[in-house]
Amino acid sequence: MGAWPRLLGVVALGLVLYWFGATSEVAWLFLIAIWIWALALAGLGYALWNAAGLEVSLALGEARAGPQGPRDLLSRRLWAGAPHPLLFEGDEVEVGVGLRSAGRGRGPARLAGRVGGVEISLARARVRGAEPEPSSVAVQIVRGPLGAEPWRLQAFDPLGVIALRRARAGSELALGLPRFGRLKSPARSQWMESAAPLLRAGAGTEVLALREYRPGDHLRGIHWPQSAHRGDLVMREYEPPGLRLTGVFLDLAAGSASIEQGVRIAASETFECLEEGGRVVLWGPGLAPTGGSEGTQLWPLLERLARWPDRPAKGSRPPAVDDLILVLGTEPDPRLLEFGMAAARAGGRVRAWLVGQADEIRRESGIEFRPVGLEWPL
């Protein structure tokens, strides 16, 4: 029962006593009615003060790596740039949930909600200041944001007569990245036979990123608008010549059983392409492609796949690429296959993964089709 029905009940009880006092001419009934009303008013004021100062405290604790995770594939350089906390689907993490008060201690209070699909409920007779008493729960990481749903907070008066319900907004605690691994494809070596060797940023024609000025840099590479904005010299970092661009295009129905497997395959292809010195652009029908500066960085691409599908864009068209990898679900867009055939005719290497379906699509010339199931690893 919420605050207002209880408060109305207390007021009604006082009115009944007051009426009996008026009809029976018993003076002490008037006094009891006034005391009841004063107690209800004081309880309501305390509950309002209590609710206004309570906050939900969330903290990530120890994380345990799950089976079949990709941590063993990461080099020291990749570890240095990894996001914190680094969580992959299948990992397990401890989440501490508690209540804290602004200033002096408050209470009593009760909190209920969900973190990562796990129900959490706790009650405190007294909520202390900045040091909450958390309740720890183990949460299994899945791909996507690890978030806390909106909380249901109840703040009581000391006697428990008045209970005010308040909603506290949810929050994103971390991001579960998709698993990835080395794909055991018999055509992988042939696929990369003509790939460009690993090259560093150089004197290509497309701007790859911006960086600070280093002694010895040529003045022609200075980005003057950004330099004026920051107050320091900023240099253009150009892509190295000959660096091939691989498009990883996903066409997977949201909420389907194949989307998780398809995202794992896309993450694996992305990892292997970057490891072999290429660039990657991620795209899907109706979605915006990844930016040019993300093309050589693993973690931004994995974060995009962790939130896939997102970034809807009207009139979005597939970007031009050198090589193409299609990750297709049960009902692929025919236009995507036509785009793949056009890329193959133009001399690009094209491969299509068929996730969770039989190899029922016609084997068009120039496209390597590979049907896979839903089990991981492949």
Describe this structure in words.
The protein is built from eight helices and 17 strands. The chain is of the alpha/beta class and 378 residues long. The protein folds into four domains: 48 residues; 124 residues, Immunoglobulin-like (Sandwich); 143 residues, 3-Layer(aba) Sandwich (Rossmann fold); 42 residues, no CATH class. A hairpin with a 2-residue loop joins strand 4 and strand 5. The longest helix has 26 residues. The two termini are 53 Å apart. About 5% of the residues have low confidence.
> What is the share of helical residues?
25-40%
DSSP strand tally = 17
Order of helical and strand elements? HHEHEEEEEEEEEHEHEEHEHEHEE
For the CA atoms, what is the radius of gyration? 30 Å
Strand percentage lies at: 25-35%
Largest sheet: 5 strands, parallel
Can you tell me the CATH topology of the largest domain?
A: Rossmann fold
Number of domains: 4
Briefly note the structural class of the backbone.
alpha/beta
What is the overall pLDDT average? 81
CATH class of the largest domain: Alpha Beta
CATH architecture descriptor text of the largest domain = 3-Layer(aba) Sandwich
End-to-end gap: 53 Å
Q: Write out the strand line-up for the largest beta sheet, numbering strands in chain order.
A: 14-13-15-16-17
Number of helices: 8
Unreliable spans: 186-204
Shape: elongated
Secondary structure layout plus pairing:
Blueprint: H1 3-24, H2 27-52, E1 54-64, H3 76-80, E2 87-88, E3 92-101, E4 109-115, E5 118-124, E6 135-140, E7 144-148, E8 151-156, E9 163-168, E10 171-177, H4 188-191, E11 202-212, H5 224-230, E12 234-238, E13 245-251, H6 258-275, E14 279-283, H7 298-306, E15 323-328, H8 334-345, E16 350-355, E17 367-372
Parallel strand pairs: 2-10, 13-14, 13-15, 15-16, 16-17
Antiparallel strand pairs: 1-3, 3-6, 4-5, 4-8, 7-10, 8-9, 11-12
